[in-house]
Amino acid sequence: MPTVKEVIRELYNIDEDSAARWVAQGLHSLTPEKLATAIDEWQDPLLIAQYLYLENPVVKPLAIFFVLKPYWERIEPTMNDQNGLYSELSTDPIKKKLLDTPRGKAWLKYVSERCYEYFRYYTWPRECPLCKSEMERKKVKVAGLNGSDPYDAYICNRCKYTIKAVVSDPPESMAQTCKPPQIPGF
Fold it and tell me: Which of 6, 33, 87, 112 is deepest in the core (most CB within 10 A)?
């Protein structure tokens, strides 16, 4: 695990290809055993945030300013491309076999959506696209639909614009041991 100092040094030396390189390195470092465990235990992919100290008050503004905002156009498609993630991971036949199961496919979809939502709102924290006011995550129920399940959404505190959250909690049938990452406080 890198130190905070190493993460900060890497952020200062960022170049255009670093984001794609980091994703590729991360995917290739995922051994078949780790992938099997992640799928079986429905592990939260946001452990990367803990690994890179992304919630550290010194690291967070640097990550946003030097990496995420300037290179968002390269980062966003990488996180949204489930086929690309699958292609990268499935170069190993053992990993391919794990991902070709129904649970493996569902887990990969969950990983893609969860990471996209985290990094989108990490980079632009709950900013309303209409009025630029702060948005708050809440459970909402669609008006007029009997028996509709509540879902997570971001609601603007000012203009009430609502965006459905990309992903809510993992489905009960899949979430055996999924826990949110424990981010160390500084």
Answer: 112
Residue 60's pLDDT is 85
Residues 35, 97: Cα–Cα separation, whole Å? 11
Residue 167's pLDDT is what?
A: 52
CA–chain centroid gap for 13, Å, is 23
Rounded CA separation 167/114 (Å): 6
- Local structure of 139: helix, strand or coil: strand
CA geometry: angle at 136 spanning 134 and 139, to 5°?
Answer: 160
pLDDT along the chain (186 residues), means of 10: 76 71 72 90 77 80 84 78 85 94 91 82 76 78 60 81 62 42 40
- Domain tally, the chain: 2
- Reference 176, options 32, 40, 34; nearest CA is 40
Burial of 3 (0-12, 13-18, 19+ CB in 10 A): exposed
On whether both 15 and 41 belong to a single domain, the answer is: yes
Q: What pLDDT is recorded for position 20?
A: 66
Tokens standing for 153? 């959404």
> Domain range spanning residue 131?
126-167
Q: Indicate if 149 and 94 belong to the same structural domain.
A: no
